[in-house]
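DM from R.C. (forwarded with permission)

"hey, sorry to bug you on a friday — could you get me a structure for this? deadline for the figure draft is monday and I only need the backbone to look sensible"
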Amino acid sequence: MNTSAMARTGRFQARRVARGSVTEGAARAGLAARGVIYLLVGALALQIAFGDTNQEADRGGALAELSQKPFGAVLLWALGIGLVGMALWRLSEALFGSVGQDGRSARKRLLATVRFAFYVFVAYSVLSFASNRGQSGGGSSDRQSQDATARALEIPAGQWLVGAAGLAIVAAGGWIGVRAVLRKYHDELRLGQMSPRARRLVDVTGVAGGAARGLVFAVAGVFAVRAAIDYRPDQAKGLDDTLRTFADTPLGPWLLVCVAAGFVLFGVFSFAMARWRRV
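My reply, with the result:
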């Protein structure tokens, strides 16, 4: 067998492993872990809307809430391991492509690479929180956003970089919301295995949850752009402060209730994706 044939065989075997049962299990565990986080953040945001908690409605607040439950330490480790699975799945998509006709395109692989980097960070923060018994989670999302913005503003062309990042987040939020409303997630589902009732559940949770998620991303991006224009890092907001701003609108806490409910629905949608997504 010549060298090129051996290389092709090696790539085929690596791709088969990447799409095997282990990777599929990792992907489904990661989607379920994402669902847990969104459910907890949404529940905390609902409590904030009705003035029932001082806990932060972000990943740190969700982890703190989870740590107080029975077997909280075990649940935190399970959540972190699930997110590691999500990162490994995205890495396999970046290396070998994803399902679908254009799954091996450069755009899809670049997007998978970005998602891989994001979930590596999220998994690390969750596992750090678990290993330090809740004493470390990287700080609140608001403090992280303000610190990162302050450091970025100090470098040459920092205002432009922060402004561009904010615009990118706004665009990402719009992309997330539009894809949800257009039900683009149908391309990733095993629709033939779903009952009509399951499809309705996925559409309700996918559209409402995705729209709420996209809206929060877009608003957070707007705050980043404002921080760049005014050269004020304190105007950058993480997830918690972004959610709280919805309660300060003329609609009062009810807009926050709607967004929080959307996060809960996106958590349910993530569980549905863990069950029916094509991997």
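R.C.: lifesaver. Residues 196-230 form the longest helix (35 residues).
me: no worries. The chain has ten helices and no strands.
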